[in-house]
Specification:
With 534 residues, this protein is an alpha/beta fold. It has two domains: 54-187 and 519-534, no CATH class; 217-516, no CATH class. Helices cover 23% and strands 39% of the residues. The chain has helices at residues 7-85, 95-106, 111-117, 206-212, 242-249, 261-268; strands at 91-92, 123-129, 132-147, 151-166, 172-186, 195-197, 215-218, 230-231, 280-286, 289-296, 299-307, 310-317, 320-327, 332-336, 341-344, 351-355, 358-366, 372-374, 389-394, 398-400, 409-412, 415-418, 424-429, 444-446, 453-456, 459-462, 467-469, 472-484, 487-488, 491-498, 519-533. The strands form four sheets. Strands 6, 7, 8, 9, 10, 16, 19, 23, 25, 26, 28 and 30 form a twelve-stranded mixed sheet that branches. Strands 11, 12, 13, 14, 15, 17, 18, 20, 24, 27 and 29 form an eleven-stranded mixed sheet that branches. A six-stranded antiparallel sheet has the order 1-31-5-4-3-2. A hairpin with a 5-residue loop joins strand 4 (151-166) and strand 5 (172-186).
């Protein structure tokens, strides 16, 4: 019997069987492909994860290295600040040391810095914490030296170079902080010192002295660093402002013990006799031009005022009233005396010498009738012309009765803001007569009837007596400096804002009395630039 299917029929069925087999092979292939795909994705994810871990580790190490290098800068600056804050008293110099330091500075040496900081330079410091370590090198580079004979100013560029590193991480990070340091050496101008108390024989600490006398000292700089004040057991304040007196009297050499009445009369243009100089106000003038103002006897009232472009000084004396007006821009001077009015095509030297005391000193203004009068407690108008440099020297006590405000300075809530002020006022109360060096009573006193919110822009110095504020509940704000052996603030407050304009204009120090003995003084440390280096 023949089979039901023919051979052709069987051959016809083979393709269907092959398709089924092919279908089963495709699933295997798809599964293999999927395994390959997921394996690839897994390996890629694993590789990406490892890469991300490495990147995260790198980022972490980079941040830690950055932190470490910043810590080095902070540590180096802290080291420098500690050395500076450790200067509790001025660094006193002998004449030989001063000469040696000047010569060294002119030769680009760094002995002044080493002596000031009591440390060898460059300064080095290092530290570490957990996985980080850092180090800092502080170097000083002289940029210039300005020689003023009695003292010199040296300026340094200070570079704090820090290197930070993380353990087992080959790359380190370097950062640099650049500062600018100004150092005064020698018999420096007193107006460069914000606050000075000499003859501190009981070694009163700085904090205790400030709290006891209700004194606050503020910086006028942007960094807000505390100004350097000095409490010294040495006698630093001179008995007299010899250099300024010599300059005002137009004499080459001034020795107080040699200044007789006869010599003084000759300088003033009076008849040369052995009689004392008559009381009054004298404008010094000779073939060289105009000098300063000399006043014999006590001044009842001295008023500083500004009228248009003229600086006015009104002096009320028992012998009469004198008014000096001068314009620095046009070189015009008008000197009004009880007997006559004198005109000059010159301007006087801004130095007023009083061989006596000043019973009332303050700012004023020209009223509607042209009379010069005190400002009064509520008035606050400029009384010192911009670009004028004045120095008032008295052999006895000076009493300040009113505001003394300069052009270009705004006082807002007892805080001075300097716009474009280039004026200066030095007030010096000695303790000796001009001729013969007879001992007198010095001191600077803020009057009882003065404003409760008194504002003064000046450098105030007394060599004998004390700096005192009479009355109660007064706030005396001074933009400048104060120097005395004794302070009597009573139930009042004294706020001193450092005047550091002289750092950019040394002419503001021109007529300032000089300190008695040479010393080192750090005038300024200013942060300039932060650099990021790899």
């Amino acid at each position: 019997m023949k089979p039901f299917f023919s051979q052709k029929t069987l051959l016809f069925l083979y393709p269907f069987r092959n398709k089924k087999q092919l279908k089963k092979g495709a699933v295997t292939l798809v599964c293999a492909f999927m395994v390959f795909l997921f394996t690839t994705l897994g390996l890629t994810t694993l590789m990406m994860t490892q890469l991300n871990l490495k990147l995260s580790q790198y980022r972490k190490n980079s941040v830690l290295t950055d932190y470490a290098s910043e810590n080095g800068i902070k540590l180096g600056f802290s080291q420098l600040s500690e050395l500076i804050s450790g200067i509790q008293e001025p660094v006193i110099l002998s004449e030989q040391e001063f000469s040696s330091l000047k010569q060294d500075a002119l030769n680009n040496g760094e002995q002044s810095i080493e002596l000031l900081l009591s440390s060898e330079i460059p300064l080095t410091t290092s530290g570490e914490w957990e996985y980080m370590k850092w180090s800092c090198l502080t170097s000083f580079t002289k940029t210039c030296v300005k020689d003023f004979s009695a003292y010199f100013i040296s300026e340094y560029k200070v570079d704090l170079k820090s290197q930070g590193k993380v353990y087992e991480y080959r790359t380190s990070r370097i950062k640099t902080l650049s500062c600018f340091l100004t150092l005064f050496t020698g018999n420096i101008p007193l107006s460069a010192l914000p606050l000075l108390k000499d003859k501190n024989t009981n070694h009163t600490p700085e904090k205790e002295f400030l709290e006891k006398n209700n004194i606050s000292v503020f910086s006028s700089g942007e960094d807000g660093s505390a100004p350097k004040i000095y409490l010294s057991e040495d006698e630093l304040i001179p008995d007299t402002a010899s250099e300024q007196i010599r300059e005002a009297l137009n004499i080459k050499i001034f020795r107080p013990q040699d200044l007789s009445d006869q010599k003084l009369r000759q300088i003033l243009g009076l008849e040369i006799t052995d009689e004392p100089v008559p009381g009054g106000v004298y404008l010094i003038k000779d073939d060289l031009g105009l000098g300063g103002i000399f006043i014999q006897g006590d001044v009842e009232e001295m008023i500083l005022a500004v009228e248009q472009d003229y600086q006015i000084i009104k002096i009320t004396h028992e012998a009469g009233v004198w008014i000096l007006k001068f314009n620095p821009q046009t070189n015009e001077t008008c000197f009004i005396t009880p007997l006559e009015t004198q005109y000059f095509d010159l301007t006087p030297k801004g130095i007023v010498i009083v061989n006596g005391g000043i019973k009332s000193l303050g700012g004023g203004f020209a009223n509607s009738s042209g009379e010069i009068e005190m400002l009064g407690q509520e008035e606050q108008v400029p009384s010192v012309l911009n670009s004028v440099n004045l120095t008032i020297i008295s052999s006895e006590e000076i009493t300040i009765s009113d505001h003394i405000i300069h052009e270009g300075v705004q006082w807002i809530e007892s805080v001075p803001y300097v716009k474009d002020s280039q004026s200066q006022l030095n007030i010096f109360a000695g303790g000796n007569s001009l001729a013969g060096q007879e001992e007198r009573t010095g001191g600077i006193t803020i009057e009882n009837n003065a404003s409760e919110e008194l504002k003064i822009q000046a450098s105030l110095t007394t060599s004998k007596g004390e700096f005192s504020i009479i009355g109660e509940n007064k706030t005396v704000s001074i933009f400048g400096s104060v120097h005395a052996s004794e302070y009597s603030i009573s139930q009042n407050e004294l706020n001193i804002t450092e005047d550091d304009r002289y750092l950019n204009n040394e002419n503001l120090l021109k007529n300032s009395p000089l300190i008695k003995i040479p010393l080192l003084h750090l005038a300024d440390l200013e942060i300039r630039e932060w650099k990021e280096n790899e």
